[in-house]
């Protein structure tokens, strides 16, 4: 429970900091919330963050961990800070922006889709969902449902979520940051798959042979 409480506190602080940076970049509360799509984006963001508090995801390293992959965590954090502030700032001053409110609403829709796809696997995996690349006691493969089609649905959700956030601000800079997210994300995927292969061997190889990493037919 102590770990869960710390994780919940971190979630709350990170959520408020992320929104705070966006509002700051957007020119303050009045300017930011003068756009109805951004009002809705904020509401959805807060709801999803609240829902995430009820998941059983964790940061425990438990039985075995690929510690060499921890470098992606500060990279994710840095890209996250830039993504929070820079798209809103670029939107406010009109640098590399495109489209109008239709583009903003498209971004909000993608943000919702990505958020659901990001959170759903966390609840499916429960305690097996870790912020670290780990093998836990009694670890077993989940190969049904969405995991029967793609192996990393939560990461696909993260990408869709990031693109949606960028488009909500009509931000070309935000889209570039979302693309940059692929670098640590692919490194994370490869580390996870190597660790799972070392644990489950032929069973995991057979699973990989019938599924895609992120997008069926592409990757």
TrEMBL record:
Topology with respect to the bilayer: Multi-pass membrane protein
One of the Pfam families matching this protein, by short name: ICMT
GO CC annotations, alphabetized: membrane
Subcellular location: Membrane
Keywords associated with the record: Membrane, Transmembrane, Transmembrane helix
GO molecular function, one term: protein C-terminal S-isoprenylcysteine carboxyl O-methyltransferase activity
Protein name: Putative transmembrane protein
Transmembrane annotation, as ranges: 7-32, 38-59, 71-90, 102-120, 132-150, 162-187
Organism name: Collimonas arenae
Coiled coil regions, renumbered to chain: none
């Amino acid at each position: 429970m102590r770990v869960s409480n710390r994780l919940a506190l971190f979630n709350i602080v990170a959520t408020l900091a992320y929104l705070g940076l966006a509002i700051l970049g957007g020119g303050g509360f009045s300017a930011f919330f003068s756009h109805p799509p951004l009002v809705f984006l904020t509401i959805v963001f807060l709801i999803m963050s609240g829902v995430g508090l009820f998941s059983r995801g964790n940061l425990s390293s438990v039985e075995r961990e690929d510690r060499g992959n921890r470098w992606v965590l500060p990279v994710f954090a840095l890209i996250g800070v830039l993504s929070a502030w820079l798209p809103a700032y670029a939107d406010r001053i009109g640098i590399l922006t495109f489209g109008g409110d239709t583009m903003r609403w498209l971004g909000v829709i993608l943000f919702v889709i990505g958020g659901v796809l990001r959170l759903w696997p966390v609840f499916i995996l429960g305690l097996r969902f870790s912020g670290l690349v780990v093998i836990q006691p009694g670890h077993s493969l989940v190969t049904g449902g969405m995991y029967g089609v793609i192996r990393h649905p939560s990461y696909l959700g993260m990408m869709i979520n990031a693109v949606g956030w960028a488009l909500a601000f009509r931000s070309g800079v935000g889209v570039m940051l979302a693309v940059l997210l692929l670098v640590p994300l692919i490194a994370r995927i490869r580390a996870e798959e190597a660790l799972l292969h070392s644990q489950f061997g032929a069973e995991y190889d057979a699973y990989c042979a019938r599924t895609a990493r992120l997008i069926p037919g592409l990757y």
